[in-house]
Write a structure and sequence with these properties.
Helix content is 55%, strand content 33%. By secondary structure, it is of the alpha+beta class. It has one domain. Helix 1 runs antiparallel to helix 2. The radius of gyration is 20 Å and the shape is elongated. The two termini are 13 Å apart.
Length: 75
Amino acid sequence: MMKAATVVGILLILIGVAGFAMGGFSFREHKKDVDLGPVQVSHEEKHGFAIPPVLSGIALIGGIGLVVVGAKSKA
């Protein structure tokens, strides 16, 4: 069974790699403006969240460190 440090390290590595690959994520939100019985007016908003490369690098380095620490403590 893997130690908690190893699992968290793997998750941080995945987050770091995804941050470098995608640069962030975006999502769409549907909002209803007017609802008058059968007549409905709505619009769609697009929101984005950028992941800075520095944060991705910190997550990647921290994840590698936790995996190494988890592997050494297992031995």
